[in-house]
Amino acid sequence: MRIIAGSHRGRHLCGPQGTTLRPTSDKVREALFSILGARVSGRRFLDLYAGTGAVGIEAISRGATAVTFVECDSRALQVLRKNLAACGFEDHAQVRVGRTENFLARPDWWDGPYGVVFADPPYADTQAIETVRIVWATELLAEDGVMVIEQDARAVLPPSVAGAALIRRYLYGDTALFLYGAAPRPGGSA
Question: Which parts of the chain are coiled coil (predicted)?
């Protein structure tokens, strides 16, 4: 695993050993940040189900002002913290230890609003849809923010959830990225 672009391009990151983690591949991370483009630089970024932290660390390397990482697995947290330290990104990171559902229920833990929310819940976990609903029903996301959910390529997520509209589904081998943005208002534009 490595950082694809930005200030720390090419830096290698520690990966999981002996865990059930499924880090976002370099190929999918590269595609993700190509999709997000200028939405990252100068914005706050939320990495839910952060695992090794590779996605959020890539966001910092590409100019995100700050990243909040949410993770509950103790072994993943060790790797995440090691990766942040190796890159010198501790000052740009807030690590929240706990389940994503608990984080979403605790506005006092949020450092938002966030310009980008990325969620990589366990594949085949129905929590993904609930996460979209919660994010759009709260003050967590900036008005012009977007949310990306990574899932198995066979996953089907709804075209709209709680004010969020599926902008596009991207396929990369056995991985799908679902990009959600604000649903267009009736009789107007988004």
Answer: none
The predicted model scores a pTM of 0.86
What's the order of all strands across the beta sheet hosting 141-152?
Answer: 93-97, 66-71, 44-48, 114-119, 141-152, 175-182, 164-172, 160-161
Pick the CATH number of 26-182 from 3.40.50.2300, 3.40.50.1000, 3.40.50.720, 3.40.50.150: 3.40.50.150
